[in-house]
Amino acid sequence: MPGKFAPAFLLRFWRSRLARRGGVGLLLSVLLVLALDRIFPLPPAPQYSPLVLAADGTVLHAYLNPTQKWRMKTELSEITPALQTAIIEKEDRYFRYHFGVNPLAIGQAAVRNLLGRGRTTGASTITMQVARLLEPKERTFTNKLLEMLRATQLEAHYSKAEILQLYLNLVPYGSNVEGVKSAALLYFQQPPDYLSLAQTVTLAIIPNRPSGLVLGKSNPAILRERNRWLRYFGQHQLFPAQDIADALLEPLAAQRHPAPTLAPHLARRLVLAQPGTALIRSTIRPATQAKAEDLARNYVRRLATLGISQAAVLVVNNKTRAVEAYVGSADFDDRRTSGQVDGVRAVRSPGSTLKPLLYGLAFDRGRATPKTVLPDVPTNFQGFRPENFDRHYQGEVTLEHALTYSLNIPAVRVLAEVGVDNFTSTLRQAGFRQVAHDAPRLGLSTILGGCGATLEELTGLYAALANGGRWEELKISSSTLAPQRKILGEVKAKNSLLLSEAAAYLLTDILAQRTRPDLPLDAAASRHLPRIAWKTGTSYGRRDAWSIGYNRQYTIGVWVGNFNGQGSPALTGADVASPLLFDLFNSLAYNASAEWFAPPASLDFRLVCAETGLVPGEHCPSQLVDYYLPGVSASRRCQHQQEVLVSADGRYSYCRACAPASGYRRELYPDMLPEVLAFRENQGLPTRRLPPHNPMCRLVRGAAADHLTSDSPDAPPLLTITSPAAHAEYVLAAAEQQQLLLSCAASSEVHQVYWYVNDQFMRAARASERVFFRPPTGDVKVSCADDHGRTVHVHVLVRAH
């Protein structure tokens, strides 16, 4: 069916209608049509009801057209031979032979009307009815002539199939229902090409009496009229006798049904993106969509008592990147909980869901492997002091443990090594629009949810992990909405390689582990736990709960929370979002293939030190097997224990320059980061500090002569102030005589430190000792010097109230 009227008919008109006539006649006919178009322009194209179709072609969601009518566009493929036969035989049996007007029928009608014999008729052809439906007018003799002229004009522009299609799209069925497709869907809940012969004939007889024969109200009368026409068609042998007999026995149970309303958020999104388009084809699978909507709606109902009102779900086919289910909210019609907000595209804090990508970048940059040991202790990252979700610290953990348990401190440390710019640049490649916009202002808190992301972006990111690290834009429509979108002036590619296949596999292997704290208690005992790799996330203030998982077939993203941003004590990814994720996988992929991800050839195994995850050194008796990327992963040897020369009584240590010829022994001492050593001492865990260096060593005496030095960017990071935080502002209650804590992290050879406030000596203390003092108000400089001559400073602002 034509989408709009236009003079592009000439070539077809030349070939199909007048080619057999003489050249002069042809030329005159074409000129006549052109003149007619100029004087008598064709009416505008009909305004159809926007229909969003599912992947299988069924109607997913329907909207009223701009004139508030149900006028759904019937495609040529939906006009069955039975429908054509019934309509043409009933309305205009010579439709295929005339040129818009049937002179014989007009003559017969004129005689009948003049003599008053028989039923009064206008002898309208199907083409004339199309002209009248396009431009409704009062029925007068003049308008009848104009109608005939318009019918001739339409025949010159369109084929018979297109004219019949126009007619079937415009015929009235009572109330605000127009067109065969609208009637078929609203009364029989089937498209026209799925109707039985009895249903097809029913729709063929209504247009002549749309106000008298109302489906659902006049069914007995309609049934009698339908059977009368069926017998007529049988007498004229238009259909097989058995088909007629079966149709006569079919009951008529038609009634008005609501229009389809699956995937309302996606449907609205597609319609707004393609205004004026009658048929929009989506990638949604109706059964998957209906199941996802039901699961989300019923699940949120159970959470109502916890102060949680909404959920959003996205289901992606990993092979095609097609979105098969799109649930923007638990209930689109629930205004109380802002159900019309699209949770799939809402920008929220992603919590910990970005950590897998960060660790994958660390793998690809050779900075870590799964068994690499990372510090998990209180750390001050230039004024940023993150905490773990449970506010507990484990000292040192492997990377795979840090990811499985979603620890914050190791993630921030890795981000500091990888670089915030590198991390946000990769997110930009993956289509994170808010991150791309905010990138210049983002810092280390990004990895803990200090940025904006959508469920669509996060699900696409995890689909990339399922695809060996290659990101591709998710598909929501078979028609391209925007081939390339611009973000901050740059064109975003439709696909890009975020991680190597090896890094993606390592992440999958870690995320598929079942021994983890974010496994819901009820799922742990369930025999129906799906085999998936998944990650949870919880935003600050417990406002957003995420759980995103994937297997070979699907990637499913789940968000649970409140659209008004209100938090809830129960709102965590593990306890609230993961149960819905598992329900979705068990419902949608219960018979999925047992095929799982295989390690790529680019991965290999090696022995590493169990204490550090590095290539074993000479003092690494405990070793284990670890994955690594040959030619990429760092090959630095482990030195977690250092050999030290100590005096026979163990009071002093010697460097090579001051070691005596005899009377000393060799011992192994742990070589820990200062912050790890300070943490262990504060926790009362067994530690060993190096004995003081030989006081007679000239190197020590020279270094001690100037132990209060200025800051130097080249100073080794063997001494740091852990409290107070640099550039922080402290407001102390003067009436309560509040004090400020002084603490530091020093390497194992440091035994004593010296504290200074505004360059004035305050006191000496053990390296692990916590010191409290009452600071002056205003800008305060705090300095700490160790017994090896190293000095560090921080500046803070102190206010009193």
Automatic annotation (TrEMBL):
Q: Which Pfam families match?
A: BiPBP_C (PF06832), Transgly (PF00912), Transpeptidase (PF00905)
Keywords in alphabetical order: Carboxypeptidase, Glycosyltransferase, Hydrolase, Multifunctional enzyme, Protease, Transferase
Give every PLD phosphodiesterase domain span.
Answer: 305-336
Q: Which InterPro entries match?
A: Beta-lactam/transpept-like, Glyco_trans_51, Glycosyltr_51/Transpeptidase, Lysozyme-like_dom_sf, PBP_1c, PBP_C, PBP_transglycosylase, PCN-bd_Tpept
GO cellular component terms given for this protein: outer membrane-bounded periplasmic space
Q: Which gene encodes it?
A: pbpC
Q: Which domain of life is it from?
A: Bacteria
Q: Which PANTHER family does this one have?
A: BINDING PROTEIN TRANSPEPTIDASE, PUTATIVE-RELATED, PENICILLIN-BINDING PROTEIN 1C
Q: Does the keyword Transferase apply?
A: yes
The first-level EC class reads transferase
Report the source organism. Answer: Hymenobacter ginkgonis
A Gene Ontology biological process in which this protein takes part is: peptidoglycan biosynthetic process
Q: Does the keyword Mitochondrion apply?
A: no
Please name the pathway: Cell wall biogenesis; peptidoglycan biosynthesis
Report which reactions are catalysed by this protein: [GlcNAc-(1->4)-Mur2Ac(oyl-L-Ala-gamma-D-Glu-L-Lys-D-Ala-D-Ala)](n)-di-trans,octa-cis-undecaprenyl diphosphate + beta-D-GlcNAc-(1->4)-Mur2Ac(oyl-L-Ala-gamma-D-Glu-L-Lys-D-Ala-D-Ala)-di-trans,octa-cis-undecaprenyl diphosphate = [GlcNAc-(1->4)-Mur2Ac(oyl-L-Ala-gamma-D-Glu-L-Lys-D-Ala-D-Ala)](n+1)-di-trans,octa-cis-undecaprenyl diphosphate + di-trans,octa-cis-undecaprenyl diphosphate + H(+)
Name by which UniProt lists this protein = peptidoglycan glycosyltransferase
Which is an annotated GO molecular function term of this record? carboxypeptidase activity
Extract the Gene3D superfamilies matched here.
Biosynthetic peptidoglycan transglycosylase-like, DD-peptidase/beta-lactamase superfamily
